[in-house]
Write a structure and sequence with these properties.
The complex is a heterodimer of chains A (310) and B (284).
Chain A lengths: L1 E6 L7 H11 L3 E5 L7 H5 L2 E9 L3 E4 L9 H5 L21 H5 L5 E4 L2 E10 L2 E8 L6 H18 L4 E5 L6 H7 L4 E6 L3 H16 L4 E5 L6 H14 L3 E4 L5 H7 L4 H8 L2 H22 L17
Parallel strand pairs in A: 1-8, 1-9, 2-7, 2-8, 9-10, 10-11
Antiparallel strand pairs in A: 3-6, 4-5, 6-7
Helix pairs in contact in A: 1-11, 5-6, 7-8, 9-10, 10-11
Chain B lengths: L1 E5 L7 H11 L4 E4 L7 H5 L3 E14 L9 H5 L5 E3 L4 E3 L9 H5 L5 E14 L6 E7 L6 H9 L8 E4 L6 H7 L4 E6 L3 H16 L4 E8 L5 H9 L3 E6 L2 H9 L3 H4 L2 H21 L3
Parallel strand pairs in B: 1-8, 1-9, 2-7, 2-8, 9-10, 10-11
Antiparallel strand pairs in B: 3-6, 4-5, 6-7
Classes of the chains: A alpha/beta (310), B alpha/beta (284).
Chain lengths: 310, 284
């Protein structure tokens, strides 16, 4: 079982568009939509749900007001400011650490389970898919990402799939770490903008930190070719192969409006631009497939660069 | 008056709106709360100076006192401690700093130390805008803690514009829960609309009044507009799908600087927001 995660540091780079395109090119693949905050892959792949399961997040403290004497020890000891004036709990602040339960002299506090979202197994026109729905404002998204990945592994086992394609969350925080740990390869998608380069650097720091082989791709490279060259130079310096440069193309939005992958859209629209675009993605996927199949690609470990962006 | 710029998802133009909005107004503050990817200053280019190191407490076990009873590891909800036969092992990045381990240790072997998880920086005082941002250290997970520290630097006497983190999880709540008005930036495509609905749900749960900035207007269809009309959500501003704006963005230039006609549009948006926030919450 080989796993590829697609991340970008920043949102809106085209991760989901690219993951969807790969899904229509790859065979024997399970898809894992790990952008659990805003899961968009299902909008294109229209999954048929097979099974839904609640994900339990961190527990939530609850004070029994019949037992509470209002001594205030819980409020003093809570580091997250979750106990309100009237001795009710602010669910958005409580991290379920349980310190209040042991600190309360009246045993008035207990922890209750709380559902933070749902993990869903589905089947799509391109194969099985694991995805999730995070409940509004829930914080255990790293945990939910782990559950999606676990579910993807089970699906891969059941349907004898060879690859898992992970559509990663944005940023470089806890959900991204959960999405890339233990993967065989990370594809970082970048854009030729000042923020694109900045976020690429942070994403690479993260993959270097976890020692995961990394490759890169620039989306909309022709919006600012000078910046694209800078990104290319950075990748060279960091020891990361830059596998493809995708042009700015309206067809990505057109395909999205049709609820199709760009590969599908190119196949029937007859649009020359779409066909060219699809071919670049085809070549990119071929490159990735080779790297995913070869386990000895040590040179792809990114170097940890000293230059730390302000 | 605190105005949060949010979107449910990254890449919709939050930073663009926040930066241009702040530059178009006089005497406002700008706070970049996207601590995983703080991008505002890439467009502002201010000299920054550190103001605060954000720290989180973590336990240190004194081996001379520790009896290896394992209470601390049993208690820890975050699996940050593991009791081995001869040692208690700590995984610092999992620790939330709740202090539970020191509370349950029967022999007082847990000492709490603090470690840096991020930093708050601000623009030097001669900068034309009062600007702060926070940076979460790579490999750390406690974004909310950095955001909360950052928000403590807001000067309540002046309007504050807050660039929010993406998503709908806890870091966004930390910002929206604090705001008097929320500007949702979106585009009218299937992805944009879907993510907009998620962000709207968060804002509604927190009872923050909401208005919309339609970015890349002209792309996609009218689904966001139709929805807003039905729900009575004001569309505060439209930013067209314009190559010039995209180019300026890619070069890190705020477009109000090169296209001065936008200054007035942002000023009008500010007036509208003030009126709407006053109407729904009474905040001036």
């Amino acid at each position: 079982m080989r796993q590829l995660a697609i991340i970008s540091g920043k949102g809106g780079c085209g991760k989901t568009t690219l993951t969807a395109a790969f899904s229509s090119l790859s065979e024997n693949t399970v898809l894992a939509d790990c952008d659990v905050d805003a899961s968009d892959l299902p909008l294109i792949l229209k999954p048929q749900v097979l099974k839904t399961e609640d994900c339990l997040g961190l527990e939530l403290a609850s004070i029994d007001l019949k037992l509470c004497t209002g001594c205030g020890i819980c409020r003093e000891i809570c580091r997250f400011g979750a106990v309100l004036e009237n001795f009710t709990i602010n669910p958005y602040s409580c991290e379920g650490c349980a310190v209040c339960t042991v600190a309360c002299p009246e045993n008035a506090v207990s922890l209750m389970p709380r559902v933070s979202g749902q993990v869903i197994s589905s089947i799509t026109r391109f194969g099985p898919m694991a995805h999730a729905k995070l409940d509004t404002g829930e914080e255990a998204s790293g945990k939910l990402v782990n559950m999606v990945r676990k579910r993807a592994l089970e699906l891969a086992d059941r349907y004898s799939c060879k690859f898992i394609l992970i559509d990663g969350p944005p940023g470089t925080g806890c959900p991204v770490m959960a999405a890339i740990t233990g993967t065989d390869l990370v594809l970082v998608l970048s854009e030729p903008t000042v923020s694109g380069l900045h976020d690429l650097k942070r994403a690479i720091e993260l993959t270097a930190h976890f020692r995961i082989p990394t490759v890169a791709c620039i989306n909309k490279y022709d919006i600012n070719e000078k910046m694209s060259l800078e990104i290319e130079a950075f990748c060279r310096e960091a020891g990361i192969p830059l596998l493809a440069c995708l042009p700015y193309a309206d067809i990505t939005t057109e395909a999205m409006m049709e609820e199709e992958t760009v590969i599908e859209y190119a196949a029937h629209s007859g649009d020359e631009e779409a066909v060219k675009f699809a071919n670049i993605i085809r070549n990119l996927w071929a490159e990735i497939e080779i790297r995913l199949s070869d386990t000895s690609k040590k040179e792809m470990y990114p170097k940890i660069l000293q230059s730390r962006e302000p | 008056m605190k105005i949060a710029i949010a979107s449910g998802k990254g890449g919709t133009g939050k930073t663009t709106v926040a930066v241009n909005f702040a530059l178009a107004l006089e005497d406002v503050q700008l706070f970049d709360c996207d601590v995983e990817e703080p991008n505002c200053n890439l467009f502002l280019g201010f000299e920054l100076e550190p103001v605060e190191e954000v720290t989180c407490l973590f336990p240190e076990i004194n081996p001379d006192k520790c009896t290896l009873c394992g209470n601390c590891a049993d208690f820890c909800r975050y699996n940050a401690l593991a009791a081995l036969p001869k040692k208690i092992l700590l995984f610092p990045s999992l620790c939330h700093g709740c202090g539970g381990c020191s509370f349950v240790c029967p022999v007082g072997a847990v000492e709490e130390k603090s470690r840096s998880i991020g930093i708050i920086e601000k623009a030097s005082s001669d900068a034309p805008l009062k600007f702060f941002h926070g940076i979460l250290n790579i490999g750390e997970a406690m974004a909310t803690m950095v955001i909360k520290s950052l928000l403590r630097h807001i000067d309540e006497s002046k309007p504050a514009i807050i660039d929010s983190p993406p998503g709908t999880a806890c870091p966004v709540l930390a910002v929206l829960g604090f705001a008097d008005y929320c500007v949702l930036v979106t585009e009218s495509t299937p992805f944009g609309f879907h993510d907009f609905l998620l962000a709207l749900k968060v804002a509604k749960a927190l009872k923050v009044p909401v208005g919309v900035v339609l970015n890349r207007d002209g792309l996609g269809d009218s689904r966001v507009e139709d929805f807003c009309r039905d729900e009575g959500i004001p569309i505060l501003l439209r930013i067209p799908n314009d190559r010039m704006i995209a180019r300026l963005y890619s070069e890190g230039i705020p477009f109000v600087k090169e296209m001065p006609e936008w200054k007035e549009k942002f000023e009008d948006m500010f007036e509208t927001i003030k009126a709407l926030a006053f109407k729904s919450t009474g905040v001036q």
